[in-house]
Design brief:
- By secondary structure, this protein is an alpha/beta fold.
- Helices cover 39% and strands 23% of the residues.
- It is built from 15 helices and 23 strands.
- The strands form 6 sheets. The protein has a 7-stranded mixed β-sheet, with helices on both faces.
- α14 links the parallel β19 and β20.
- α1 packs parallel to α7 and α4 packs parallel to α5.
- The radius of gyration is 23 Å and the shape is globular.
- The model has no long low-confidence stretch (mean pLDDT 97).
């Protein structure tokens, strides 16, 4: 069983008290690694290192910061297979999916390297007589970040990339469930001396001791977290004690609105991917299919073989595996509880695939029908391979149902009518809306939610701006 260190001040370190935590492969239940189990002392050590490096890194030229990000992208490319294998084993993620994420993350880093050299603001000018004004965008300082367990390296890159580009130093905590790929990436960066000491610090541990400690620390001036809504609310409340800047990417309940003129074969392909990618453990998963009554039966008929044919198993068994386990036995019980309560309330399991038995945390992919808009399984994020179908009678009802949840992260519209599609995108209360597709992202475009899906943007120049603070400088011409 391998041991993975933390990275603090450019050094590979154990926990301050040398405590460790075992990490489990969710497909087998087997222990695969040990990592430092952090405490308040580890938080203090990491924040101190970040604070000590803040002035020099904040004063580094945009070109110098960009070069560090380009070097990190090159490092990720060089070690992509190792990192993919780690993520596959730790998350229970199919190896082809794990491999596909690293080029995207490297592209994110290269984009942020370019963005570091291209921050913009209002033109300097004389806005009152006898004075010239200009606007500066400056780093916030020490930023605390918490990455989720479903995309541990990719979403860490979404956070550290814009933060470093803007001149901040970082204390980053991976999920205690899936810390391996991020800890290894940080260790490689430290071993190759790619990042100045103290600029990027990665410490593992649970949310109670390490996560809460980062959020509450008075020297941390901004916090960013990807997680569920309840955690986001706790973070916002805790951060308010020291009036920190807060960036939240929280849960989702993404609808796919399928109108009667949609390409049903394309919809089926999108559901097969978007509903079950990463075992449905994705905030943008197409978990709610709102379908016009006229094409409901056709969609169900075509979805059945598509879902039942999903290859579910241990990702280590080969590239043919399309869906692995959920992250833990507790998550499996949570998902199964949602389904059981939905069925008790009148829902029907229309389609169900298969899942292995044994020690792994597997859940069969399924489609539920007969659900009401008020049902728990429609209103709450399940975070598992469960998709619901709701037939709608007209466009007004479809949009009302789509918007009728607390979440507002992502949605998609399926129609050949351009005017209908554009009107729907205007009326949908979601931060990302696709037309005739579901899931693709681009480094240049922002990602973030409305309503209780959080606030702040990942990716794009908007993400870099999130990690800055604006200063007005006025000069008297007398």
């Amino acid at each position: 069983m391998s041991a993975f260190p933390n990275v603090v001040g450019g050094e590979l370190v154990t926990a301050a008290d040398r405590a460790t935590r075992d990490v489990v492969n969710p497909a087998t239940g087997v222990l695969i690694a040990s990592v430092p189990e952090g405490s308040a002392a580890d938080v203090e050590r990491a924040v101190s290192a970040a604070a000590a490096a803040a002035a020099s890194w904040g004063n580094a030229t945009p070109g110098a910061r960009a070069q560090v990000l380009l070097d990190l992208a090159e490092l990720l490319d060089e070690h992509a297979e190792e990192l993919a294998q780690l993520e596959s084993a730790n998350v229970g993620k199919p190896i082809l999916l794990a491999r596909s994420e690293n080029p995207i993350s490297a592209d994110n880093l290269r984009f942020f390297a370019a963005a570091a050299r291209n921050l913009e603001g209002p033109a300097a000018g004389e806005y009152i007589a006898g004075h010239t004004s200009m606007v500066r965008r400056e780093p916030v300082g020490v930023v605390g970040q918490i990455a989720p367990w479903n995309y541990p390296l990719q979403m860490a890159v979404w956070k550290l990339g814009p933060a470093l580009a803007a001149g901040n130093t970082v204390v980053l905590k991976p999920s205690e469930l899936t810390p391996l790929s991020l800890l290894r990436f940080a260790a490689l960066a430290a071993e190759h001396e790619l990042v100045p000491p103290g600029v990027l610090n990665v410490i593992s541990g649970d949310g109670v001791h390490v996560g809460a400690g980062i959020i509450a620390h008075p020297a941390v001036r901004m916090v960013s977290i990807t997680g569920d809504v309840s955690t986001g609310k706790i973070v916002a409340k805790t951060a308010s004690d020291t009036l920190k800047k807060v960036h939240l990417e929280l849960g989702g309940k993404a609808p796919m609105i399928v109108f009667d003129d949609a390409d049903i074969d394309a919809v089926v392909s999108a559901v097969r991917l978007g509903g079950y990618l990463n075992s449905g453990q994705d905030c943008t998963a197409s978990s709610r299919i709102l379908v016009a009554e006229a094409v409901y039966d056709e969609l169900v008929a075509k979805l059945k073989p598509a879902v039942e044919s999903l290859s579910v198993g241990d990702p280590a068994s080969g590239e043919s595996v399309e869906m692995g386990p959920v992250i833990s036995a507790g998550q499996r019980e949570r998902v199964e509880g949602f389904v059981a309560r939905a069925v008790d309330a009148g829902a029907r399991v229309l389609i169900s695939g298969s899942a292995p038995s044994g020690n792994g945390s597997f859940v069969a992919p399924m489609v539920l029908g007969g659900v009401t808009q008020e049902a728990e399984i429609v209103q709450r994020e399940v975070f598992g391979p469960v998709v619901t179908l709701q037939p709608f009678s007209d466009e007004t009802q479809a949009l009302a149902w789509a918007n009728g949840v607390d979440y507002g992260l992502a949605a998609s519209v399926w129609t050949r009518d351009v005017a209908r599609a554009l009107d729907a995108t205007r009326r949908l209360q979601f931060g990302v809306v696709w037309i005739n597709d579901h899931l693709p992202f681009a480094s240049e475009m922002p990602h973030g939610g409305f309503k209780q899906s959080g606030y702040g943007k990942d990716m794009s120049v908007y993400a870099v701006q999130e990690y800055t603070q604006v200063k007005h400088v006025m000069i008297s011409l007398d």
